């Protein structure tokens, strides 16, 4: 489901006042620039509850702040082979205690779903020889 924006209290009060004055959903919607279904939903809620307050959303608040999430994304972008445990330790040093699952959820929310590292670690010449020289393109440049 798509996130929707909340109407401010003034507009909702205008909708209710115009409804009390006897106007229909469509005419109220055209006058205020809102859809008729939005107007209808606001009026139905007003009839049921008799108040027009924005209630907070359900669920626990995020443990990782937007700044922490951007720090995680920056570290993963700069060092693709970093582990979730490294990210947990970084956040712990910054003062936020989270689990690896929370890190995983944050990465998924920002578009890194089931990603593996982008590149093989750079190999030393001894490793290249052990692989019969097949990894020449991955060797460190001196």
TrEMBL record:
Gene Ontology MF term list: DNA binding
Annotated Gene3D superfamilies: Winged helix-like DNA-binding domain superfamily/Winged helix DNA-binding domain (1.10.10.10)
GO biological process: DNA integration; DNA transposition
The protein's name in its UniProt record: Uncharacterized protein
Residues annotated as domain Sleeping Beauty transposase HTH: 1-51
Classification via SUPFAM superfamilies: Homeodomain-like
Domain Transposase Tc1-like: 70-131
């Amino acid at each position: 489901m798509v996130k929707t924006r909340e109407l401010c209290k003034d507009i909702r009060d205008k909708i209710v006042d115009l409804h009390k004055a006897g106007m229909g959903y469509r005419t109220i919607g055209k006058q205020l620039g809102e859809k008729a279904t939005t107007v209808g939903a606001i009026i139905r809620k007003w009839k049921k509850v008799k108040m027009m307050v924005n209630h907070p959303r359900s669920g626990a608040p995020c443990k990782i702040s937007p700044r922490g999430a951007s720090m995680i994304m920056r570290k993963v972008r700069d060092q693709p082979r970093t582990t979730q445990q490294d990210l947990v330790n970084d956040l712990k040093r910054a003062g936020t205690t989270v689990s690896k699952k929370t890190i995983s959820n944050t990465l998924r929310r920002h578009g890194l779903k089931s990603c593996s590292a982008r590149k093989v670690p750079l190999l030393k010449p001894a490793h290249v020889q052990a692989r019969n020289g097949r990894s020449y393109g991955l060797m460190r440049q001196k």
